[in-house]
Amino acid sequence: GRPVGNRLWTRNLRTAQVKEILNFIDGDYVIGSAWFDKRAPYNGQVIARVAEADKALVDTAVQAARNALHGPWGKLPLADRVDLLYAVANEIDRRFEDFVEAEMTDIGQPAHFIRHVDVPRGAANFKIFADVIKNVPNEFFEMTTPDGLGALNYALRRPVGVVAVICPWNLPFLLMTWKLGPAMACGNTVVVKPSEETPQAAALLGEVMNRVGVPKGVFNVVHGFGPQATGEFLTTHPDISAITFTGETRTGAAIMQAAAVGARPVSLEMGGKNAAIVFADCDLDAAIEGTLRSAFANCGQVCLGTERVYVERPIFDEFVSRLKRGAEAKKPGLPDDPESGMGPLISQEHRNKVLSYYKKAVEEGATVVTGGGIPEMPDALKGGSWVQPTIWTGLPDSATVMREEIFGPCCHISPFDSEEEVIRRANDNPYGLSSAIWTTNLQRAHRVSGAIEAGIVWVNSWFLRDLRTPFGGAKQSGIGREGGVHSLEFYTELKNVCIKL
Ligand code: NAD
């Protein structure tokens, strides 16, 4: 790759012309061996050409990251590292609108969602892990010995090394910084592979790092695809010390195999088929509002989203009709349209997948309560990957549509009659990421939360996140937990020092 200067994440940022999104390696923006197109999800037009990193460029990035470990970054006192992470957060805030634009054009979701969920979490992710690393105590054990003099044990935390960060497209900036914050706080260096669908925010973050003085090579970005391409070149690179991944379960399994060579640790945040359980004693307004968000926010492309809703029989009909009304009120539109209630799916390819499930649901005997197809859009937006919010009833738990993650704006609602029954049915799935329980009965809330097989349970809420808490999936939804001190388990190597007195 040829360096092209260090303040050029894109050309023509504020014009309608096609941008160029570059790799960011060792503090410089570099082109690659090829280019690929990024299309806007709302109209299908090419908005950027992205510089693809080949094997040689991935190697350059990994070597830059490895050198940085032993350079100024590795020698930086903790307090200075913490200050730098705060500076990154502040610079993200200063460039807030640039990140909003990058995310808006990459994922096409309504501006208010990007402004309130996705981009603010970028800055928060750097601050929280700066605070964690500053405040976490070291483990210490005093022991007795037969000679009566004893020994002292203490555990030191050291960076793991060069961390490969493999990101999905659904909440690109939020999910990428969720890994970068702790990785950098713990003193590691990183090579990030953003999704090929959402390259912009990662590239822009390079400018932030340079501006606040993060040493060259600490943060690197390589663009490209997954299998037999940039992603795989990175995860199979022998100088990568650990791999953190968010994405589909199938991809996670491939990454785990790559990590097996050299026995590298992995942290995997993967798919879900999350259940909401709505008891008749719930606050129905809150349950409707929460379920509308959990099924349709980000056009249903949230790993924590609800695709299976179980509603206690006495309120089933009312719940279905109110959720239907809410879904039908979500008007699709452009991100900067204040009336827009929902953006498009990420790509035509993903829409084909979602529509295949819409078809399958009908074949499997579902009643389509609302949606099920493509909405009527104005001519200028017809090339976008729009899809209708969709609700089904009438399927058995064994239906494909009830078992596989669809990752679209859709859910199935089933009635249930007892707590025991609904726990069994909610758990009868290979995934175990999250669950939302709606009830005003305190004992039941605790009982059901305890029995649900998932990494995260919300009671009377959804997507309410305290970044200090453990986050991750049970069963096929993930391996490991990140968040607060839990992230330290993955991003540091603990070393016990035993001193005989
Ligand atoms: P994906 O698995 O298709 O891709 C994720 C990333 O992996 C991309 O950058 C891709 O290029 C890369 N990749 C693909 N194959 C690879 C390979 N063989 N080697 C190395 N890298 C490879 O996922 P996606 O479609 O981008 O994202 C949607 C999925 O992510 C959904 O399943 C969703 O549930 C999941 N997700 C999970 C969480 C969580 O926290 N558990 C959060 C968000 C999304």
From TrEMBL:
Q: Family assignment?
A: Belongs to the aldehyde dehydrogenase family.
Q: Does the keyword Oxidoreductase apply?
A: yes
Q: Which residues form the Aldehyde dehydrogenase domain?
A: 36-497
Tell me the GO molecular function terms: oxidoreductase activity, acting on the aldehyde or oxo group of donors, NAD or NADP as acceptor
What organism does the record attribute this protein to? Noviherbaspirillum pedocola
The record's active-site residues are 269
UniProt cross-references to PANTHER family, sorted A to Z: 2-AMINOMUCONIC SEMIALDEHYDE DEHYDROGENASE (PTHR43720:SF2)
Tell me the superkingdom of the source: Bacteria
Q: What is its EC number?
A: 1.2.1.85
Top enzyme category:
oxidoreductase
Keyword annotations for this protein? Answer: NAD, Oxidoreductase
Q: How is this protein named in the record? A: 2-hydroxymuconic semialdehyde dehydrogenase
**Claim: Oxidoreductase is one of the keywords in the record:** yes
